[in-house]
Amino acid sequence: MDPVPALDEPLKKVLGPATAKVMAEHLGLHTVGDLLHHYPRRYEERGQLTHLADLPMDEHVTVVAQVADARLHTFASSRAPRGKGQRLEVTITDGSGRLQLVFFGAGVHKPHKELLPGTRAMFAGKVSVFNRRLQLAHPAYELLRGDAEETVESWAGALIPIYPATAKLESWKIGKALQTVLPSAQEAADPLPEPLREGRGLVPLPEALLKIHRPHTKADIEDARARLKWDEAFVLQVALARRRYADAQLPAVPRRPRPDGILAAFDDRLPFTLTEGQRKVSEEIFADLATDHPMHRLLQGEVGSGKTMVALRAMLAVVDAGGQAAMLAPTEVLAQQHHRSVTEMMGELAEGGMLGGADDATKVVLLTGSMGAAARRQALLDLATGEAGIVIGTHALIEDKVQFHDLGLVVVDEQHRFGVEQRDALRGKGKQPPHLLVMTATPIPRTVAMTVFGDLETSVLDQLPAGRSPIASHVVPAADKPHFLARAWERVREEVEKGHQAYVVCPRIGDEEDGAKAKKKSAGDEAEKRPPLAVLDTAEQLARGPLGGLRVEVLHGRMQPDDKDAVMRRFAAGEADVLVATTVIEVGVNVPNATVMVIMDADRFGVSQLHQLRGRVGRGSAPGLCLLVTEMPEASAARQRLNAVASTLDGFELSRIDLEQRREGDVLGQAQSGTRSSLRVLAVIDDEEVIAEAREEATRVVAADPDLERLPALRTALDALLDEEREQYLEKG
Known about the structure:
Layout: H1 11-15, H2 17-27, H3 32-36, E1 42-45, E2 60-75, E3 85-93, E4 98-104, H4 109-114, E5 120-130, E6 133-137, E7 140-143, H5 149-157, E8 159-162, H6 171-181, H7 194-199, H8 205-213, H9 218-249, H10 262-269, H11 276-289, E9 296-301, H12 307-320, E10 324-328, H13 332-346, E11 363-367, H14 373-385, E12 388-393, E13 407-413, H15 420-427, E14 435-440, H16 446-452, E15 457-461, E16 471-477, H17 482-497, E17 501-505, H18 512-521, H19 535-544, E18 552-555, H20 561-572, E19 578-581, E20 594-599, H21 607-614, E21 624-630, H22 637-647, H23 651-661, H24 664-667, H25 688-704, H26 712-731
Parallel strand pairs: 4-6, 9-14, 9-15, 10-12, 10-13, 11-12, 13-14, 16-21, 17-19, 17-20, 18-19, 20-21
Antiparallel strand pairs: 1-8, 2-3, 2-5, 3-4, 5-6, 5-7
Helix pairs in contact: 8-9, 9-25, 9-26, 10-12, 11-12, 16-25
């Protein structure tokens, strides 16, 4: 008997170099263990036995019948011009009716030899019609010899695994390769601690692997999937629990605000009262800041729920306690916006060291990559001396040159654009690790938060501040009803006549380099007929046409930072009526006087992105209006997505819809990296309970044995996950 290959054995040795090369290049499978964890996507049943008289169209059937006759025909075709093409026609009968089987090309040789008149066999395939007669093309078949009743039942009832495959390697070849390595499943070390596995009634790992690849019944598949889901959820949650545990061991300086300091002075100046949610979340944050290990908190908030206010109060609490706070924004436009709104909210409290500054005032500095040398030198000096209590900037803050006097808090805006490495680099700038607050305006279902941001505690702001207006959203079907689009531009004019302002958002900029990319990347339901609408073209057409006479300005990501800032200032000051922009306005842009947004080619944007964009209007006392313009037909998935966005303002509800429509890998930040998601059977939305329970179990296991010394198999599984997926999971996109 051949020895069973070990799980870390390279596939090259077991399957041969040619197959192994295709598996490595196209499926990312390198070892026997990798192949065992390449699970079937679904299972085909050969179909219960069907009488030839009752064959259904277009369905997979299995029939037992006798060959009545078999004829080999030759014919000419484009592939075989000299009459060398071959077609084998076999007629079978079971007494109730007759059926034709056809085989072509090289596929004729084996059945020509085996399917002789009088031979009894089982045939499985999909029923189709040719020349008004039913037929099976290239059916699978099994010859029946001797006592066939048992064979018939077991073969027909078998569940055939269908694997994620590639053009270079069909599912059945992957199945054959698995047949070769399946005995190795007995060697699989079980990462689940035994008490956990037994307590939850889960089958052992070797049994789960056998059942997922060679199930006898549907119950086998259920058992295997239930067990393998737990593996994925648990190993991932252990990785995150260990990160939380390690963070909790770090020392930090407790930061408590002074009762009569800058925070109290700021609160006294506020022209409004904080919402109940803002107060509750602030208390959670202040309690974290007062401890002697670093806070790691995720602040999720609906668009416009006042996250910036909560973050600013946390920064002021740290300044009160003698520390400095840094806010990290993903783009220069956003960093400038935050700097502007923070200095406006703080007024004289932001004028530390200046004439007219309040007694408790501090300096608020901006630091971005495109600043002039003199301004940059001054900002760096203010940080190093501690003169500036608050700095707002882009990833320029992470550079080596930036030194802080005493960094106490890091606020990261829109976390999905910053990886853990960048967070760590910034944290390394404190004498002791600073506290960390991560803000995201993309509402995330609880399970995704536990999976993607599992190393952070979570706070949720779900109320809108008083004075915010509701936003009405409508889909504008431009192709079916062109007059709806004309009416949309009339609505924009009406709002401007009332003294308000409008945004028009387009998917791309419109210079040539951009056009080439857009053709490649555009995503829609149907094959694209045209490239996505562009800012530069649209602005020109609107200014010449339906919005003639209004002050139309343009904003996009490839403009010079100073030009972008100048446009935003003019728009905020009311010196422009309509801003035609790309998604650079997606987050953080705050112009309360803007009441209407028209999103062109809205089907080209994701659900969360549309929700984000819509949050830029209705920020003042006048009601907001968002018009989603699309040429997609009524029945398309894109239209259904837009209808969902128009029907609810609940970002958490939309994020569930979004997640159900996309692959899990996108959510886990792997869309960009193009690697396989390491979630093969776990579905983030559907398996909410498994993830929540796995998180509790993981926290318990790590608290009892942080280095997993008593659980070597779990350590191995964890090393494999972190090795292969460290970038994806712990980078967070």
